[in-house]
Amino acid sequence: MMSSYMRYGALSAKVRAMYGKRLRFSDFEHMAAMPSEQSVLEYLRGQPGWTAAVSALDTTGYVGRVELEEALRQQLWKEYRGLSHFVPKGDKLLVAFPVRLAELEDIMTALRRLKAAGHAKPLPASRYEQLESKVDRKALAACADYDGLLAATVGSIYHEALLHVRSNTAGELPDYTTTEALLRSTYFSHMYRLIHKSCAGETKKVLLRAFGEQVDLLNVIHILRLKTYFPGDGQYYSALFPFNYRLRPEKVKALCDAGDSAAVLALLQDTPYAAAAQAQGASGVEDWYRREFYLFNKRQLVTGEPSLYTAMSYLTLKEMEFKMLVNVIESVKYGAPYDESFARLIGE
């Protein structure tokens, strides 16, 4: 333990101080009652965790939902870059997981545009290009066909997977759901390789649990959605992640073979995820997963032994806080209810 404090003590102290600046439930509740996005912007100026983002906005022109959300996204990249200075060199590839996820999202955005025959347009501004990204975002935004998309991803962890789903028919685009599942599997494979290569002891155990439980529960949610919305259609069971942590392959097969979502939940009763079986359907399990994922990362940040996962857990929690902020901003913009239960969780 002493070595972990020597190696990660400064990093741990920094992220815990940063986490102390998070928004509380009263902040979300107050913002959700505001009349406009501009009111939310002004409120965030006084919040230490987000003031830098909104202060950097050019408010001489119109600032609406899109502009505000993009400014808040830039705050995530600013904090990522700041934390990277405290991360030992050998750990930087693991802590770069937000960059890998951002690359994946940009690739899928480009594929959606191609499928909709949309015109090339710039992707939202980002600073992750400055953080050793292997995806050419400008080329990705400008690509007019799948070959252009492939060229923009050369050197990234996703390029080989994208080659794998390229159609033999000229001009035909790959199936969106299959492509997304393959890229997410590629992401998890990449992270698993780094964990086994770079980590040992308690840190390795925590990381394997963090990613393993994600995979297990995302597979369960995927199966429940298929049973709920596409009963009898087995086309996308192949899109499940080909990894297991606490759900053995035979159990996953049984879940796939179950007659409906109620049968899936019943089968979960004798697994380590029995608590999830008390939820109502796919959305209930998804809410349960989101809560457990947040609490797991919070425990690792607040009470866990200092490690590289201390930084990773903070970045995960900050991303979830950002998503809650986006939910509030869109609630104000469109007059829809905000996610109060999620706000209570984030703002505890």
Automatic annotation (TrEMBL):
Record family assignment: Belongs to the V-ATPase V0D/AC39 subunit family.
UniProt keyword Ion transport, yes or no: yes
SUPFAM superfamilies linked: V-type ATP synthase subunit C (SSF103486)
Keywords: Ion transport, Transport
MF-aspect GO terms: proton-transporting ATPase activity, rotational mechanism
Protein name (record): V-type ATPase subunit
One Pfam assignment: vATP-synt_AC39
The organism of origin for this protein: Lawsonibacter faecis
